[in-house]
Amino acid sequence: MVEKAKTFSNILRRSVEKFTIPLGALSSVSTIVMMVAITVDVVARNFAGEPIPGLLEISETALVATVFLGISYAGVTNAHVSVDLLTSKLSLKSSRVIAGVMWLFGAGMVIWFIVATAERAMESTEMGEVTQGLLVWPVWPTRWLIVFGFIAFLVVALANVYLSFRLEPLLGEDDEPVTAGASETSMDGVTASANNLNGTEKKE
What we know:
Layout (H helix, E strand, L loop, with lengths): L1 H46 L7 H22 L15 H36 L12 H26 L14 H24 L1
Helix pairs in contact: 1-2, 1-4, 2-4, 3-4
């Protein structure tokens, strides 16, 4: 039973990583697109005296893609901002349980976000929402992008809930943390090696 659970955990890790890595890549690409669009728009305003139609809308869409496609990849790589001042002082089991509770709370919040943004996206799609700028740009696809980003992050949150309550490392964490006892053993080994080396040099 333990081996089956461990196998399932490994399959879960690999599946979530394969699902989110392309999203992280798309987030990086959208960041580059946004930077290029803003740069070209600024150059056009300064030298031509007028903006290039569509660049502002492209940069806004790319910004949404950068944020909401990147949150799930950040969750898989454990890159989100976290404060471990309390959990670092607790036992491994206690810190895992606290992390599981927080990820479970976060998953509930994300479900709320998904429902709210999906309702707004359906309304936007039905009315054919567009921007009123230099170029008529559809807004509703961007709203669905937000919904998809939250769904992907929900998958990461639920995976971390499962792993934490099984007292296993979260996504993006090392397999086994280094304990104080292990550090002391390593230092003793280094000290012993140094003493042996000094003894050899004295004999020579």
